[in-house]
DNA sequence: GAAAGTTGTGCAAACGTTTGCACTGCGAAC
DNA sequence: GTTCGCAGTGCAAACGTTTGCACAACTTTC
């Protein structure tokens, strides 16, 4: 019993042919109820598990979706993944998950790998492959859905958050509260999300009649550490020129900023207002609760699966753009009087 | 070109036999350098990706590890996963990841599924299968490693956090600071981690000469909401009988407790001390920074892979128990005088 | 009582690989 | 000019399934 039982083992015990076993297990109507029962109990006893490799080989289609993410530790990715899981599970698809550690080369390697496993389609979360790489993307004849990344092509579909709008929303919210000096704490430099949020930030500023100040976008990478650094940068600015509010690339870095502010004795929101992005579960329990722009991460995952399955069914698929709302909580207040006096 | 190119397609173009292609691609020394070159470029041009299903079928062994977790959204699971990823990637193994949504039945189904995919071994994180189910666990002839769960059996190995010790550590820390009324906010009822941490809590109490009070263990489930509820429970207790400190099942629920405390105007640590468990990345940026017991999650994942691979190589494998340390931060202080007066 | 239909089962091919063995040339050794 | 060794390549079997087709044994119909 050193090897996994196969359909042949069952056949031998039951005294029938392998094809009969296959049909019985598949529930074919051409098998008598009696034989089916017998075969099923034998399968149970032998602890039989079908070889999906063999099945895939002959049927040519497998009920698996490949999913690639830069990291599984990111709460945003986790949320997207939940959507993917729920939706694919409902439709009877399994997932083959791989992480690329944020390395574009590994990402391509993972694509190859998953295709080698005969996945029916690919979902790629926050691809780090630079857009100009575009044409160099290996072409497969299975559909690919990018979540929050853009690589146009045949058989390639997109599901995205409206990051530009989100950036605009956050900045406008601050502007409407009376802030005139709003800084932006950035995310991964290459990232499309980062540049789009920055663009929305800029548009909001200019629509309100303020000049866009490149010196007020502080570089970051979406980690809490980036938030800490941003706050220390803020403290170093001469008081009269300090921004009175921060729009942060994501909740994680906003939380880092909050933590550093607490440790440095900077009061939030009295001394500095903060808006995050994502509406991560943590944003609700932060101290004070974080005002943020919602990103419908679960919905992104769900939609990606829907698009992929539609493409598989040869239905027309269009790119999807999801807008989140601003969730006002407790990290935004009117700027101090001194600042208003500035004007 | 509707189908993926196979080794035969390459063979046809190159004017050689499929076996030659297979050998050339595998780097067999029996193929002339010239032919190898030619075949490799053709493979490139055709965008060939080997069918891992077919390869697995004939070789009988696949370089894949199956990983099952109740959820991918839990930061603790994410950390374990990082360890698993790093270690398995280093050894040339891919991962097939499935989540069970915390449902024991799905968990078993996932095991079947992954075995069907011919994974070389299985890693199961925080199994929710009740221990008494034990014998009912399907038996496979591949090694299985449980992380923080216990299902003894042949070919089954374990990697665990010393939860009892961790619970003792947290409680003792509070006791040493002068607390005499320490409550425990629990985790998932069935969970082995929960009961072990509770046992450690109890042992610390009794070793210090205090009676274990069942009414002071408040039920929870590891979510922030559970922490919120716990704080509201605390507020309802008559002041003279209130615990002065909380040991929480995990950081997530401790963070929820902190947040509710902030909203209710309860000062941490002045009014109430709190110790968490996990040392999640968030614990460092919480306000105030959370005192917690470290759980070497990454290391758990790493060890699990090591054990699995050792078992695959038929080396002797023993169960591993990892101890974390107490990380003192800022949520623990001496109890108020009134409480000390109580004694 | 023969033809036709029905029901249950088996045969064999196919999927894309890997691999033991056999084969073909060719140069070297006797 | 045989024999041997060797480098390079091809043949065919095998892995565990699924599935179109054929077949056998009954039952029904005329």
Structure write-up:
Two copies of one chain form a homodimer. Chain A is an alpha/beta fold and 343 residues long. The first copy, chain A, is built from 13 helices and twelve strands. In chain A, the strands form two sheets. A six-stranded parallel β-sheet of chain A has the order 2-1-3-4-5-11, sandwiched between helices. The first copy, chain A, has a six-stranded mixed β-sheet with strand order 7-6-8-9-10-12, with helices on both faces. In chain A, helix 1 (7-14) packs across helix 3 (33-46), helix 7 packs parallel to helix 8 (192-207) and helix 9 crosses helix 10. Chain A is elongated. Residues 339-343 of chain A have low confidence and may be disordered. The interface between A and B is large, with 56 and 56 residues. Chain A binds a DNA duplex (30 and 30 nucleotides) through residues 6-8, 16-20, 22-23, 26, 30-32, 35, 50-60.
